Amino acid sequence: GGGLAGTDVTAAAADVLGGGVGTVTVAGRRGHGQGAFTIKELREMTKLDKDGYGMQFVVRDGELDLGATPATAEEMKSADGGRPRTRIEKLLRSVASDGG
Fold this sequence. Notes:
With about 100 residues, the protein is mostly helical. The protein is about 50% helix and about 0% strand. The longest helix has 14 residues, at about 80-95.
């Protein structure tokens, strides 16, 4: 892989990550339907291992199910954000595992 050069990672984060990291966990207080990430960013994360970064993008079905609230369902139907959120949901479900 090409490392972090040429990415938008901050210098402070690059200094920490440059020494080697075993695990990075991203957690949020809301479901994936409220996430502030794009479909492009998620696609890039799903390809990290294949692109030679030796990283895995792990999504668990059960955690997606926990975020599938009635409020999330309404947001996915909204005119101002429904299509992008639906695409994100589809991508996450396609890479999700049972968490085993």
